Amino acid sequence: MSEVAERVPVRRLLALAIPALGVLAAEPLYVLVDTAVVGHLGAVPLAGLALGGTLFTVVSSQLTFLSYGTTARAARLHGAGRRSDAVAEGVQASWLGAGVGLVILLLAQLFAGPLVRLMTGGGQIADAATGWLRIALIGAPMVLISLAGHGWMRGVQDTVRPLRYVLAGNGVSLVLCPVLVYPVGWGLEGSAVANVVGQTVAAGLFVRALLTERATAFRPDTAMMRAQLSLGRDLILRTLAFQACFLSATSVAARTGADAAAAHQVVWQLWSFLALVLDSLAIAAQSLVGAALGREAARTAKAIGRQVSWYGLGFGVLLGMLFTVLFPVLPSVFTSDSSVLAEIPHAWWFFVALQPVAGVVFALDGVLLGAGDAAYLRTATMLSAAIGYLPLIWLALVFDWGLSGIWTGLSLFMLGRLLTLLLRTRSGRWAVVGATRTPSDSAVH
């Protein structure tokens, strides 16, 4: 009997997407608050936060396979009725996260200063960024353990508990940040300390959740970790392409001047916030697509992909309209510096216009990530970066195009990703069924 494609009920999709939205929005929303708190210290601390925060994101984002790769593997196993094996993926990803995080913590204390000076050429912004970064990266092991926790819980279609854990951790940070920055008098470094405390709370809750899964072994399993790293290799290369672009953009903005760097920080944090908001549908798609392929329902997986793409487009249009209306009032929430406010429009309208494109791109990313189609995503992202984003960023520095040049590069990057994702999803080659997906299945056809 041929398979009948199932349309996912909207209620089921929202049951996964809304808690995921809370999780995805919580961290960048906290960063926005952090930006607003630090922004009133002046342009140099805000620019230091921009650079230090970008480098911290590079570190944590480079290990996103602990989340996305674990979700892809766990969702297939969950769809095949093997929950304990799905949770075991989370255990091994947590061991990986803890070990890698400790290495990052140690390296940060040695190389944070030289790396920041290399990007900025030294000066007050470099000093501010270095102090913030050395403290913030103490939280690296906790961040990576939390990423692994998100991965296996999404895989078993539990997006409610991660929301509670993230809210608990960020709630602690939210209370501490303004207190440590102003009354205690630690300034920019106070925001980094608040980050670390909140991250420790969240990681502890994810570890406790694993311990309640009594049917799962907790010893390190090197074979399983190697399999995770095999999928992670493509996701790491994909993330490197992202980070090469984002670091270049921040570096060029910093070399343009403190005002441009601070303005870029404000608009970029809004972009990052909305990117993760839009990604809530992708998280739901990733879990549902992986589970459908695990139970060998390829037509259902393809139908889910089409469904979430239309939802992503509509969501992006609504967000673009909202932030058009908010332009006269929102930038002043983040800074009172008139020079910074004058720079913001050069990036703002690119940010608004790209929201519908981003809605579709992030939805299709979730579909292919759920299928474990990491090799194609790696290649498509690297090509889009090399052809679109990176050339424009560095030309913007050479020809003094400022933020307009930087954000033109981002626009080309997003359009390139949109084209390659549409071509792949229409081909149907990504919909490989089974409880596991071998590296050969992930080859680009």
From TrEMBL:
GO CC terms of this entry: plasma membrane
TM regions (residue ranges): 49-69, 90-112, 132-153, 165-186, 192-211, 235-254, 266-289, 310-334, 346-368, 380-399, 405-423
Record's keyword annotation contains Iron-sulfur: no
GO molecular function, one term: xenobiotic transmembrane transporter activity
Keyword RNA-binding: no
UniProt keyword list: Cell membrane, Membrane, Transmembrane, Transmembrane helix, Transport
Pfam families attached to this UniProt entry: MatE
Localization in the cell: Cell membrane
Bilayer topology annotation: Multi-pass membrane protein
Main location: membrane
Family indicated by similarity: Belongs to the multi antimicrobial extrusion (MATE) (TC 2.A.66.1) family.
Entry protein name: MATE family efflux transporter
Naturally occurring in which organism (per UniProt): Actinopolyspora erythraea
Species classification: Bacteria, Bacillati, Actinomycetota, Actinomycetes, Actinopolysporales
